[in-house]
């Protein structure tokens, strides 16, 4: 975990433990620099991460303020572009790697990544948890022509830094698709539910700044756990 991520988690814990409410002011940047003994840029990155997650909002010239907390049991629907593995000891929402392989892309995956059928892709399987309850099962596919090497250590740590700093990729935007469907036999067995029970499927296609897709994610959510919040950072109109 990088220093700015640790600071963001510590500040979020501080907000929770002190029962801070929306509008409560946090220490100024200079105080945070002194407290955590890091550079200004590290604090700025931590605050940006918290702002993106809807934990704080920044008012230029006034300071850093707490944003209203999400309802209990709800998770952020919109993904960050961070591709990070979260530590379950410090976060209520986390994921675990349960499998990794190199496979030929099935038509659905090939179409999402703009590949020919059976092109080689990395596939990684995750189980996501929220407050120790299974939230969803996710399978992620990486275009092997773009990401030439992956292993479990990279996946389990900071893949975002690997993609940007080691491979030099410029991560751009993502497209999200949601649909309601019914569980198949494998999915029902995994969740301990019945065949044909409802489920929510969330698909995400991640693109480079050039517009080329490089990562495709498909997650199946337990219908009793599928509670989401979208925290927008700007409002153009009402």
Automatic annotation (TrEMBL):
Source organism of the structure: Niallia circulans
Keyword Phosphoprotein listed: no
Cross-referenced SUPFAM superfamilies: Chorismate lyase-like, Winged helix' DNA-binding domain
Domain (HTH gntR-type): residue spans on this chain: 1-69
Domain of life, source organism: Bacteria
Example GO molecular function: DNA-binding transcription factor activity
Protein's name in the database: GntR family transcriptional regulator
Keyword entries, A-Z: DNA-binding, Transcription, Transcription regulation
